[in-house]
Amino acid sequence: MTANKKTTPTWSGVFSAFFLSSHMPYRDKVPVHVVVDPVLSRVLRPHQREGVKFLWDCVTSRRISGSHGCIMADEMGLGKTLQCITLMWTLLRQSPDCKPEIDKAMVVAPSSLVKNWYNEVEKWLGGRIQPLAIDGGSKNEIDNKLAGFMNQRGLRVPSPILIISYETFRLHAEVLQRGSVGLVICDEGHRLKNSENQTYQALNSLNTPRRVLISGTPIQNDLLEYFSLVHFVNSGILGTAQEFKRHFEIPILKGRDAAASEGERHKGEERLKELIGIVNRCLIRRTSDILSKYLPVKIEQVVCCRLTPLQAELYKNFLKQAKPVEELKGGKISVSSLSSITSLKKLCNHPALIYEKCMEEEDGFVGAMDLFPAGYSTKSLEPQLSGTCAATRFPLEGDTGLC
């Protein structure tokens, strides 16, 4: 509990005090700090703490009044999953008025990530919570599990987190739309860029005010696709699709046209700034440069590998056969040229990779079988036939094999 005096909320590794708003009931109650569980706060890096604070402020409508959604768009490797698990756990256990902010949460992810989400929840929360992951079963079995999840009530429900794939959600949306969920998190959320598809519409019909969309690539080439993502998490902040098109998309695209007048360019830039200003209130994106302080200095070394006699003969044989083809095509790069580059890369790695081409006497490899040693077989690696293998072997055997 905090003293009953006015203080300025700060961020110091845990959620600082969030006082009850004046419009909320029980104004005479002493507000409490909302604090991240030490099990999680001790492993959060500074940028992750800032991310969790941003997510909390968004889903509790502190950043945009009347809106409860946001887009977590950090680059890969910055811990988006951990930040969202921290948000879920805090909402399920705390609020400024001494009771959980939500009773249930749902994670919707590609089918290949359902198990990963389950493992991550288990990893960070251990036995503190029992998530329900839907990873197969008959229609009736899944319906019964989902109905059981939706019918849970109270401050401490047995399985407060549901993890489900987009495909399963779409097929069983009717069951999930019968009740309400406190929070929904959509991983790989750029899948929702098309507001016309069934998955988007099914998720958008879910009875939940708090929505978090996770995507490492939220920027779309099509402005209407970008609108769909923002509209999903915070319906109405960009107007309707028609209003967005009229106010933002048309002026921005006109301003980017090569034949645009100075006035159209200026108007397009102004509308783009306005759009960015609105979206940045509910979108957070950090790059992997943040991690540089935690990593050792990156050292790159270029190692030149000498071709073995067999590789050199095969390479020369290929070039002799390829030259007339290039002359016939007038020196222009063709599909066969790009294919040749791929074949030569394989040859430089190990002759075994192009052995099948030699057997079938494909272009560039006619007569190449005669260059292989007698009794050669791809069943044994024979590293002595590859300059690359020799270069990677030399630290142990003293045979450099370098140029």
List the SSEs and their pairings.
Blueprint (H helix, E strand, L loop, with lengths): L37 H4 L4 H14 L9 E4 L7 H14 L11 E5 L4 H12 L6 E2 L5 H12 L10 E5 H6 L1 H4 L6 E4 L11 H7 L5 E5 L8 H11 L7 H16 L5 H18 L3 E2 L24 H20 L6 H15 L5 H5 L27 H11 L6
Parallel strand pairs: 1-6, 1-7, 2-4, 2-5, 3-4, 5-6
Helix pairs in contact: 2-3, 3-4, 9-10, 10-11, 12-13
GO molecular function: ATP binding; ATP-dependent DNA/DNA annealing activity; DNA translocase activity; helicase activity
Pfam families: SNF2-rel_dom
Keywords: ATP-binding, Helicase, Hydrolase, Nucleotide-binding
**Any idea of the CATH topology of the largest domain?**
Rossmann fold
| DSSP strand tally | 7
CATH homology superfamily name of the largest domain: Tandem AAA-ATPase domain
Structural domain tally: 2
Cα shape:
extended
The rounded distance between the terminal residues' Cα atoms is 71 Å
- How would a crystallographer describe the biggest sheet? 7 strands, parallel
Low-confidence stretches: 1-26, 396-402
Query: For this structure, what is the CATH class of the largest domain?
Result: Alpha Beta
Organism: Crocodylus porosus
Protein name: RAD54 like
InterPro entries: Helicase_ATP-bd, P-loop_NTPase, SNF2-like_sf, SNF2_N, SNF2_RAD54_helicase_repair
Domain Helicase ATP-binding: 61-236
Detailed description of the structure:
It is built from 15 helices and 7 strands. The protein is α/β, with parallel strands linked by helices and 403 residues long. Strands 3-4-2-5-6-1-7 form a 7-stranded parallel beta sheet, with helices on both faces. Helix 5 links the parallel strand 3 and strand 4. It starts with 37 loop residues before the first helix and ends in a 6-residue tail after the last helix. Mean pLDDT is 85; it is low at 1-26 and 396-402.
